[in-house]
């Protein structure tokens, strides 16, 4: 399992904390939307086999590194960040989550979402997890300035939604209302989940540690354990990811005398404008 984490730092003056109000607009920034990534979040939780390459390939998002770099550069601009009230990336759930989480009341126009190609229906536009896209909330009067600053970085921007007073998430496709859900329902996270647990008293007499391990074939038992894929070295898998990008890595994923021992933690330098650490 690969787990990603992101750590960043920004000057305090660049960080604005405001609540969206009715009349604010949501701008979709960056890459266009395609079918790649439809079902990606649920797909990553499935049990995969060798056949997954044929049956689940469409669930994997297609990256766009140049577009990502332009977004990073844009978000280092104080003139840009001070305009943003809230911001979300397009990870799991696509438009439904990235925009749906930004405010209590929203009207989303899926026809405005920039597409990689024609033929996408409302559901695909709403759930696609195509990468290198951001959703930002800005005041209506700041939208033109934000879009002009993004244009300087050659980034496409589109106003795709507006914040409303009514606490409902509404989505329109081909000028028809296809989603209309109350925020109060969304906040429940669905049906209440309960379970019953029965814990048996441990059988100390017949436990593994109380039994005498007689006539145990230590050699074959050891070989069986170390040949299990769950116990083997994960170095090959780890090295498929470029952990040195940006040149800020302090501790490599593997250390020790032979660089084979997994590190217990992560350490990296936080890049700043003046390179002072």
Summarize the structure.
The chain is α+β, with helices and mostly antiparallel strands and 277 residues long. It has ten helices and nine strands.
List the helices and strands and how they pair.
Blueprint: E1 25-30, H1 40-43, H2 52-55, H3 65-74, H4 78-81, E2 86-89, H5 95-98, E3 106-109, H6 122-127, E4 133-138, H7 143-152, E5 157-163, E6 168-173, E7 176-182, H8 183-186, H9 218-226, H10 235-238, E8 254-255, E9 261-262
Parallel strand pairs: 3-6
Antiparallel strand pairs: 1-4, 1-5, 2-4, 3-5, 6-7, 8-9
CATH class group of the largest domain: Alpha Beta
Q: Order of helices and strands, N to C?
A: EHHHHEHEHEHEEEHHHEE
Structural class: alpha+beta
Number of strands: 9
N→C terminal distance: 32 Å
The unreliable regions are none
Estimated radius of gyration:
25 Å
Instruction: Give the spatial strand order of the biggest sheet.
Output: 2-4-1-5-3-6-7
Main pleated sheet: 7 strands, mixed
Number of domains: 2
CATH superfamily of the largest domain: PurM-like C-terminal domain
Q: Give the DSSP E fraction (strand runs of 2 or more residues).
A: 15-25%
Q: Identify the CATH architecture of the largest domain.
A: Alpha-Beta Complex
Output the CATH topology of the largest domain.
Answer: Phosphoribosyl-aminoimidazole Synthetase, Chain A, domain 2
Helix content: 10-25%
Q: Mean pLDDT score, rounded?
A: 86
Shape: globular
Kindly describe this structure:
- This protein is α+β, with helices and mostly antiparallel strands and 277 residues long.
- It has 2 domains: 15-46 and 57-186, Phosphoribosyl-aminoimidazole Synthetase, Chain A, domain 2, CATH 3.90.650; 233-277, no CATH class.
- Helix content is 21%, strand content 16%.
- The protein has 10 helices and 9 strands.
- Strands 2-4-1-5-3-6-7 form a 7-stranded mixed sheet. Strands 8-9 form a two-stranded antiparallel ribbon.
- A hairpin with a 2-residue loop joins strand 6 and strand 7.
- The longest helix has 10 residues, at 65-74.
- The protein is globular.
- The mean pLDDT is 86.
């Amino acid at each position: 399992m690969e787990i990603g984490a992101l750590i960043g730092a920004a000057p305090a003056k660049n960080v604005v904390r405001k609540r969206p109000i009715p009349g604010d607009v949501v701008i979709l920034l960056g890459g266009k939307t395609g079918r790649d990534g439809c079902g990606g979040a649920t797909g990553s939780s499935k049990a995969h086999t060798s056949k997954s390459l044929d049956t689940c390939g469409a669930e994997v998002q297609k990256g766009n590194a140049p577009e990502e770099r332009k977004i990073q550069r844009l978000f280092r601009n104080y003139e840009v960040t001070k305009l943003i009230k809230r911001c979300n990336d397009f990870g799991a759930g696509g438009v439904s989550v990235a925009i749906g989480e930004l405010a209590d009341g929203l009207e989303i126009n899926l026809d405005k979402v920039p597409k990689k190609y024609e033929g996408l229906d409302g559901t695909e536009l709403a759930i696609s997890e195509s990468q290198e896209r951001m959703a930002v909330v800005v005041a209506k009067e700041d939208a033109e300035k934000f879009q002009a600053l993004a244009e300087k970085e050659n980034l496409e921007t589109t106003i795709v939604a507006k914040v409303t007073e009514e606490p409902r998430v509404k989505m329109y496709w081909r000028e028809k209302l296809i989603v209309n859900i109350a925020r109060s329902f969304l906040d429940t996270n669905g049906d209440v989940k309960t379970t019953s647990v029965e814990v048996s008293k441990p059988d100390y007499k017949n436990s593994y540690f109380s039994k005498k391990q007689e006539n145990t074939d230590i050699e074959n038992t050891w070989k069986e354990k170390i040949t299990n894929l769950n116990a083997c070295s994960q170095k090959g898998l780890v090295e498929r990811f470029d952990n040195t990008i940006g040149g800020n890595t302090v501790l490599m994923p593997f250390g020790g005398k032979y660089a084979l021992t997994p590190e217990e933690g992560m350490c990296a330098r936080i890049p700043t404008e003046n390179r002072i650490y």
